[in-house]
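Person: Show me a sequence?

Helper:
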Amino acid sequence: MQHESHAAHAHHHEVAATSSWAMAVRATLHCLTGCAIGEVLGMIIGTALGWGNVPTLVLAIVLAFFFGYALTLRGVLKAGVGLRPALKVALAADTLSIAVMELVDNGVIVLWPGAMDAELTDPLFWWVLAIALAVAFVLTTPVNKWMIGRGKGHAVVHQYH
């Protein structure tokens, strides 16, 4: 029993030692990519269909989660992991990161005067989206570092790369 405890303790230190800011930045950029694809696609679809702000925002958030998970799933499946275990890895690795990113970037967009009513052709739309994603990146990176340091989040995915 003592040996197992020691091995688990040693593994925790190994994970914590590899929990660098660079790793957290890479994990957050990965998350940001999926979120940005989903956000932009959702806003384009919602706007093109003439939907209101709330349904468009909901679609953008759903697609952000979808594409965030899909990017992770693609890499884990490529490593030879079966679909069900790969889904578990993607959900465990990305849920908190995507949730924080979506909360922050959509919060910025909702709170920015005029941003929710800006059309796709309006530079305000694109500037606020870029600023919102940048703020979300800055605030999500420490979350990812904290998770990686505890052997969670992208630390789980890292073993498949």
Q: What stands out?
A: Confidence is low (pLDDT under 50) at residues 2-17. The CA atoms of residues 6 and 12 lie 10 Å apart. The helical segments are 2-17, 21-48, 53-78, 83-111, 123-149, 154-158.
